[in-house]
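A common beginner's mistake is to predict each chain separately and then try to dock the pieces by hand. The better habit, illustrated here, is to supply every component at once so that their relative placement is modeled jointly.
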Amino acid sequence: MPQPRVLSGVQPTGALHLGNWLGAIRNWVDLQDSHDTYVCVVDLHAITVPHDPAKLAADTRSTAALYLACGMDPKRCSIFVQSQIAAHSELCWLLNCVTPLTWLERMTQFKEKSVKQGDNVSVGLLNYPVLMAADILLYDADLVPVGEDQKQHLELARDIAQQRVNARFGSEKQPILNVPKPLILKEGARIMSLTDGRNKMSKSDPNESSRIALLDPPELITKKIKRAKTDSEHGLEFGNPERPETNNLLGLYSILSGQDRQSVASECAEMGWGQFKPLLAEATVAALKPIQILHKELMDNPKEVDLVLKAGRDRAAAVANATLNRVRQVLGLAIRA
Ligand code: TYM
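With all components supplied together, the output reads:
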């Protein structure tokens, strides 16, 4: 029996943060042992909003190095750069032609991001979820490990595969595309901002204190946690909807210190912030230290990262091109000589 297939990715925009690690990358690391795992750096998604061309290639390599530093093992998975496999853009176009515009217009992330861009919203931003569907469907992925915020995009990818490709061009016995499932873990799927516990931690928040980047130095991590928004209630508890910041910080402490929520709840029940915040800072610094050390080693030896990306690209391209040909054929496009 072939192993079930996993596909996921992160955009190389700005510094990756705790949300990207705990909501996504950490899960990939566990899955690579039991799944045929493909992870890409989605640089084509990164250009759907204004970006700095001088930084993109370096950020792409640094993001791949972070995958490795977080525990992705090129012997057990394929790591590649999205834009280096043309099949992603081509399948995106083919899927564009069968996806209703109204499906894209109602995407929450598009609505949120386009408000911020005013008159400058690109067609690419609207198209973002179709490119994401192409990323996933090209690999016949069974599972897509992502944070909670990507659920709607995953549903769209499923609908495109099922309703717009399989139902129209395939048959029940012979589906054209595999219909993927999201894998959203309970803990870590929605890490909240340090400055507002009702909003998710995000790379695009202009306030850098709202997030902890995976490469933040220890002093900065400690400072950000010290300044993190709290409340004035006595004692710390999980699950009180009136105390979103407390819930978030305790949840972070549980994951980063490797203790279950019950033991964190009893350890911290009588604590004040002055006692808790240094504990959280210490746990965060300790959890990120091995990642930071390995990332630096890899960035000092970029050729090694590039070799990993080349091998990953070769493996991924073979799978992607086979799927693309299948779709080209059922859409009636001329066969290449
Ligand atoms: P990006 O770069 O915005 O996010 C990458 C991953 O991090 C998760 N994430 C979070 N998880 C928990 N708490 C948070 N605060 C938080 N912020 C981000 C995201 O859910 C995501 O899993 N559109 C994708 C990139 C993509 C993709 C794909 C993913 C493109 N093609 C194919 C899977 C499969 C995204 O959100 O990138």
